[in-house]
């Protein structure tokens, strides 16, 4: 039984993969499709390329999530499609004008009632099985998807090499600081990673909650002040992806993007070496000035070398002890004539 | 002052200064002009026809559950319009602020709204739509219909019912006044901590949100108490549990949720208020506070609230579909079991709103499975509705169209809901517009249910039908708008677009944003047809007038009363002999008989006290928001004093004699007019006589 289900799901997934290949083909061959007024359908069919970021994962974590989505949708469609069709047919067949068979006494049927509880129950049981598998596969603290080879749920690729690279992520109001504790370097509003190696993020925030998210690589995880969360991932191939905050954190939230550059092993080593001689250094005092509320309108990035050891722990402990970077009134919902006063807090604002 | 405040404060006006009136913001000025334009003709007409006295005697002071329900629905629809305008502004901003090259207007960096304004708009959109529009309209329906369906003359506590209404109105008034005096919250309708703490929200916006929610949640809790008692105690003779109309069952489940969940919201917000006013550290990041505590408390209320909104809508669908299928509801007992189990499960799923907060796999899995379990009774309901259609004789009048629309929306919402219930999938779409599209699909099930109920029961309450022609167009454009807006939004979610963005960094989203905006345009057209429908119906009300049972195939007791329903509901309380009591009577040809004997009817006097309590509650809220301590203190003392004073009032109501009832009912038989202008006197007026 279980094998049957898995086989059916596999078939469905193969079909979907083929559809995606076809969509890629369409995208290459028929750019004119963009012009169709039905841009909605066009983008669904993949004509706007890899913009459907959740359907184009580039790492095992995101790939596992996608596979579970496909399985979930297939199982649910087994119930929802027949029900929808049944309703549509009933609406057509039993409309008053058609004078079809009318049976006001048909209001109860034990057999049907057993079926109507049983079918959703079976579906939920199946989904619960996959939820159970999934919850460990992408568990932020120790995702088993990173260690697996080819399987139904995990992405078929090479397992990661070497020790995981540890990166400390700090969300301030409203910028991102990435600290590489073992390399003693840090970057502001940009993230660099090696491909093929497991990455372990330790995350905290200075003031309010944000969500850390890179759609093609890693799902969302809350970044909270005074606490640390963890998340792990691996990127399959070099490239540039967009990471950003996904949880409202105040006025600068909409500008909290960080480009994520995934490099080859050699490229990453070269980048680290280069950054280790960057002229800017970072200690705790320097960090506090970064943590001052700043709306990063221009996408300013910085590299730091000689980062103070244990900076991450120090930031967490400071938050626990009550350190806050108070948001000035004119950077919150307050809309009075304070534009000139806002300017120093806005990087790249036209008036500054 | 126990906390550090940014900005000025003085003992007389608190934080209120003239600069808090945003007269230099063209958008707020426009809103003000719009509000004036909308209010001016109403005020003018009321004055011209000298209706203010009528308004106070017959409406403001009323304890009649039907009038209270109508006022709930009017407040809810006004707030629905306000929330809709907020929605238009959100999506238009996103369309205009897409990509780094997008143009800037009105002091914004991109689009026309700076984040300082945009954040308030989406926060008020969510707060209004959930707390002050959908919840309020549905409460109105339950107020009107439940006593009629169970054969009662009023609610168990008519006075408390009016208090609930005016507390809700005070909350809604606070939200509305925040538009013109000060600001509204910028932290989303959920009020994420520690963003709502004083260091990060130093203004009054969060306080407006806080007190508006507090007042309305108090009103809702009292309302829940009232409806539960009514259903348990006030049923007509013979109305056993399993003879109750299904909408009454839905109400019982809903209000049980309300009674247990809303106090949690009260506590969550009270602790937040302690942080903001007294300087405590319940939810702060440091100094011993824990922000996760708020998230838990909020969603322990927040998720049951979702079912508080959806269950009554499903109840409405369960009345409308049988009526227009000319068949009893399929599997009534199973439907009751399903509804009760959904209500029960609603308490056990709250953690699925924050799978990403770092809980371990075990915890996430438990809540994942409990969430999916909700899908079982929900599936049962869908099957029962479709089997009710099967072998029926379907008539597609407007209420039925809305109910069918809701049924299909529920299928879409169920599909995406099951995806979100799986943590491994949730991680990728949590806080994306995919989630936004999902819960809008579910709320729209509610909204479709609301419009089904509006079309269905409007003739019962007002005595004439709503215009079918413009009603159909309203439905068509609303449904098309829904398809365009939310198909685009689901796709944007898969493209990785997240919520609450004032500026969108990805220009590739433009095409879908345009489709969304087109859908919103269709919604606007549908609003036009809604207004036209109301106008045409009132204009042609004589032509559309009708007797007790306008649909001719309705099944429950409310259709047995005269139309429009007289203020005493039933001249003689009916005896119930089975499920679908009215359908039974119709099938046995007992609809035209009138009772031989009438009896004296005792009804409560009207009273101004609940409206005064509402006004004082508003004064209290406003005083707390601006930290005008004397105003808040005096209002609170006023509330306490008034409640004590009222408890001494020896108000035994008034009696409608059997002879009067007989005259009124006979008069109706001859002329079709129900009352000869008798209505309950205002209790306080007796003091002056």
* Helicity of chain B, as a percent range: 55-70%
Class per helix and strand makeup of chain B: mainly alpha
Write down how many β-strands of chain A occur, each being a DSSP E stretch of 2 or more residues.
12
> Helicity level of chain A, as a percent range?
25-40%
Mean pLDDT metric of chain A: 84
Strand order of the largest sheet of chain A: 8-5-1-2-3-12-11
Poorly predicted regions of chain B are none
Beta-strand segment tally of chain B: 2
Kindly report the spatial arrangement of strands forming the biggest sheet of chain B: 1-2
Indicate the multimeric state.
heterodimer
Membrane topology (chain B): Multi-pass membrane protein
Subcellular location (chain B): Cell membrane
Main location (chain B): membrane
Transmembrane segments (chain B): 27-49, 70-90, 122-146, 158-181, 211-234, 246-272, 298-317, 329-350, 362-380, 401-425, 437-458, 474-497, 509-531, 628-645
Short note summarizing the structure:
Chain B: The chain crosses the membrane at residues 27-49, 70-90, 122-146, 158-181, 211-234, 246-272, 298-317, 329-350, 362-380, 401-425, 437-458, 474-497, 509-531, 628-645. The complex is a heterodimer of chains A (352) and B (689). Chain A is α+β, with helices and mostly antiparallel strands.
Structural notes for this entry:
The complex is a heterodimer of chains A (352) and B (689). By secondary structure, chain A is α+β, with helices and mostly antiparallel strands. Chain A folds into 3 domains: 1-51; 55-99 and 109-159, no CATH class; 165-345, Immunoglobulin-like (Sandwich). Helix content of chain A is 36%, strand content 18%. Chain A has 8 helices and 12 strands. A 7-stranded mixed sheet of chain A has the order 8-5-1-2-3-12-11. Chain A has a 5-stranded mixed sheet with strand order 4-10-9-6-7. In chain A, β1 and β2 form a beta hairpin. In chain A, α3 (60-93) packs antiparallel against α4. The radius of gyration of chain A is 26 Å and the shape is elongated. Residues 25-48 of chain A have low confidence and may be disordered. Chain B has a domain at 290-560: Cytochrome C Oxidase, Chain A, CATH 1.20.210.10. Helix content of chain B is 64%, strand content 1%. The longest helix of chain B is centred in the N-terminal third of the chain and has 35 residues, at 115-149. The relative contact order of chain B is 0.10. Chain B has helices spanning 26-48, 52-60, 65-96, 115-149, 158-177, 205-233, 246-278, 291-325, 332-345, 361-389, 398-420, 423-429, 433-462, 468-494, 510-539, 541-544, 581-587, 609-625, 629-648, 658-671, and strands at 601-603, 654-656. In chain B, strands 1-2 form a two-stranded antiparallel sheet. Chain B is mostly helical.
């Amino acid at each position: 039984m279980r094998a049957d289900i898995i086989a059916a799901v596999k078939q469905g997934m193969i079909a979907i993969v083929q559809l995606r290949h076809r969509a890629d083909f369409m995208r290459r061959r028929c750019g004119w499709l963009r012009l169709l007024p039905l841009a909605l359908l066009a983008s669904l069919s993949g004509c706007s390329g890899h913009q459907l970021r959740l359907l184009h994962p580039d790492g095992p974590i995101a790939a596992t999530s996608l596979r579970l989505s496909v399985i979930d949708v297939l199982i649910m469609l087994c119930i929802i499609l027949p029900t929808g069709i049944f309703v549509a047919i009933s609406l057509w067949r039993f409309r008053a004008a058609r004078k079809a068979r009318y049976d006001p006494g048909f209001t109860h049927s034990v057999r049907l009632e057993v079926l109507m509880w049983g079918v959703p129950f079976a579906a939920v049981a199946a989904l619960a099985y996959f939820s159970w598998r999934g919850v460990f596969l992408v568990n932020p603290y120790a995702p088993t998807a990173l260690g697996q080879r080819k399987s139904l749920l995990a992405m078929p690729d090479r397992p990661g090499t070497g020790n995981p690279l540890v990166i400390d992520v700090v969300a301030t109001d409203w910028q991102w600081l990435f600290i590489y504790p073992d390399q003693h370097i840090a970057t502001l509003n940009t993230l660099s990673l090696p491909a093929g190696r497991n990455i372990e993020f330790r995350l905290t925030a200075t003031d309010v909650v944000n969500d850390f998210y890179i759609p093609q690589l890693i799902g969302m995880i809350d970044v909270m002040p005074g606490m640390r969360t963890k998340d792990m991932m691996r990127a399959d191939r070099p490239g540039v992806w967009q990471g950003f905050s996904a949880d409202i954190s105040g006025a600068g939230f909409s500008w909290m993007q960080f480009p994520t550059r995934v490099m080859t092993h050699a490229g990453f080593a070269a980048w680290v070496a280069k950054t280790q001689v960057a002229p800017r250094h970072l200690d705790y005092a320097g960090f506090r000035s970064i943590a001052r509320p700043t709306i990063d309108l221009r996408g300013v990035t910085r590299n730091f070398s000689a980062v103070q050891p244990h900076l991450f722990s120090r930031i967490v402990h400071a938050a626990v002890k009550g350190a806050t970077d108070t948001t000035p009134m004119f950077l919150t919902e307050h809309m009075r004539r304070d534009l000139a006063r806002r300017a120093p807090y806005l990087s790249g604002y036209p008036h500054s | 002052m126990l906390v550090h405040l940014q900005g000025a404060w003085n003992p007389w006006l608190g934080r209120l200064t003239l600069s808090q009136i945003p007269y230099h913001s063209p958008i707020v000025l426009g809103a003000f002009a719009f509000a004036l334009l909308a209010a001016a003709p109403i005020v003018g007409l009321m004055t011209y026809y000298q209706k203010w006295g009528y308004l106070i005697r017959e409406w403001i002071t009323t304890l009649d559950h039907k009038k209270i329900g109508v006022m709930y629905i009017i407040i809810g629809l006004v707030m629905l319009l306000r929330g809709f305008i907020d929605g238009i502004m959100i999506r238009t901003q996103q369309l205009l602020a897409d990509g780094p090259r997008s143009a800037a207007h009105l002091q914004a960096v991109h689009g026309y709204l700076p984040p300082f304004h945009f954040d308030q708009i989406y926060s008020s959109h969510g707060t209004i739509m959930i707390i002050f529009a959908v919840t309020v309209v549905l409460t109105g329906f339950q107020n009107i219909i439940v006593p009629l369906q169970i054969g009662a003359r009023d609610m168990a506590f008519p006075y408390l019912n009016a208090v609930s209404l005016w507390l809700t109105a005070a909350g809604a008034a606070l939200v509305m006044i925040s538009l013109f005096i000060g600001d509204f919250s910028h932290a989303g309708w959920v009020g994420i901590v520690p963003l709502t703490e004083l260091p990060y929200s130093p203004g009054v916006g969060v306080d407006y949100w806080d007190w508006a929610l507090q007042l309305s949640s108090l009103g809702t809790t009292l309302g829940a108490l009232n409806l539960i008692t009514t259903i348990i105690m006030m049923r007509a003779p013979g109305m056993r549990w399993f003879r109750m109309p299904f909408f009454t069952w839905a109400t019982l489940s809903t209000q049980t949720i309300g009674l247990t969940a809303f106090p949690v919201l009260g506590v969550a917000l009270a602790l937040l208020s302690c942080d903001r006013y007294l300087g405590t550290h319940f939810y702060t990041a440091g100094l011993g506070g824990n922000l996760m505590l708020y998230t838990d408390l909020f969603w322990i209320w927040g998720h049951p609230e979702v079912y508080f909104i959806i269950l009554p809508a499903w109840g409405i669908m369960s009345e409308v579909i049988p009526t227009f299928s000319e068949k009893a509801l399929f599997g009534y007992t199973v439907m009751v079991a399903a509804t009760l189990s959904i209500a029960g499960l609603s308490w056990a799923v709250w953690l699925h709103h924050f799978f990403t907060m770092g809980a371990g796999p075990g915890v996430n899995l438990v809540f994942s499975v409990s969430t999916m379990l909700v899908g079982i009774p929900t599936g049962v309901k869908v099957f029962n509705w479709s089997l009710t259609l099967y072998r029926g004789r379907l008539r597609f009048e407007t209420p039925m169209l809305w109910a069918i629309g809701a049924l299909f929306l529920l299928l879409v919402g169920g599909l995406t809901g099951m995806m979100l219930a799986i943590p491994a999938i949730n991680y990728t779409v949590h806080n994306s517009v995919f989630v936004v599209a999902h819960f809008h699909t579910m709320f729209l099930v509610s909204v479709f249910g609301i419009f089904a109920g509006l079309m269905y029961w409007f003739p019962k309450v007002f005595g004439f039908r709503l215009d079918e022609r413009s009603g159909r167009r309203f439905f068509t454009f609303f449904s098309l708008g829904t398809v365009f807006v939310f198909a685009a939004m689901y796709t944007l979610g898969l493209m990785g677009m997240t919520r609450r963005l004032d500026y969108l960094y990805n220009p590739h989203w433009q095409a879908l944003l345009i489709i969304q905006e087109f859908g919103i345009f269709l919604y606007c057209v549908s609003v036009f047809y809604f207004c036209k429908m109301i106008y045409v119906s009132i204009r042609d009300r004589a032509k559309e007038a009708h007797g007790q049972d306008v649909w001719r195939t309705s099944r429950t007791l409310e259709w047995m009363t005269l139309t429009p329903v007289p203020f005493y509901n039933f001249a003689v309380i009916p005896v119930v002999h089975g499920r679908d009591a009215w359908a039974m009577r119709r099938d046995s040809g007992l609809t035209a008989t009138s009772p031989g004997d009438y009896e004296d009817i005792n009804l409560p006097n009207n009273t101004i006290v609940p409206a005064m309590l509402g006004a004082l509650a508003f004064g209290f809220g406003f005083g707390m928001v601006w930290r005008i301590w004397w105003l808040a203190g005096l209002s609170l003392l006023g509330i306490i004093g008034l409640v004590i004073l009222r408890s001494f009032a020896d108000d035994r109501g008034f009696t409608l004699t059997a002879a009067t009832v007989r005259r009124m009912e006979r008069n109706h038989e001859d002329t079709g007019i129900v009352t000869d202008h008798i209505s309950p006197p205002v209790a306080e007026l007796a003091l002056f006589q």
